[in-house]
Amino acid sequence: MERNTSQKQIILATIREMYHPSAEEVYDVLHKTNSTIGRATVFRNVNSLANSGQLIRISIPNAADRFECMTKNHSHFRCDGCGKIIDIDFVPSIPYPETNEGAIYGYSLLFHGLCNACQEKKKSER
Predict the structure, then answer these.
(1) Spatial contact of 92 and 107, defined as CB atoms under 8 Å apart
(2) pTM
(3) Segment (H or E) for 68
(4) Domain extent for 90
(5) Above 80 in pLDDT, residue 21?
(6) Would residue 20 count as lying in a domain?
(7) For site-directed labelling of 72, which of 26, 36, 92, 126 has its Cα 20 to 30 A away?
(8) pLDDT (average), residues 78-87
(9) How many Cβ atoms are within 10 Å of 64's Cβ, its own excluded?
(10) In whole angstroms, what is the distance from residue 121 CA to residue 126 CA?
(11) How many domains are there within the chain?
């Protein structure tokens, strides 16, 4: 059983106040107010919280993983323009494929395109 340290609780509280941060962004925020907290401590605890199911890990191709506290099943949209990650209340009803290679417990769905702000910016540049 993993320990529920005060550092872990501070990290979790910080992530609750942020919107899909990377572990590096969490470290940057925490280090400003608590210069004794180390980068390795933040990364280790963020990964531990994700592995225990207290955080959701959002894997982004060619970018740092993002994390969030909302653990209900939902999808994400990543803007190709600004990189913003947006929650989408969409859960497709697809059956898990059968495999002899292991047990499937879930999936992650990431849409991509341009957010409204980037679409407007693109229109104004024409």
Answers:
(1) no
(2) 0.80
(3) strand 66-68
(4) 75-124
(5) yes
(6) yes
(7) 26
(8) 94
(9) 13
(10) 9
(11) 2
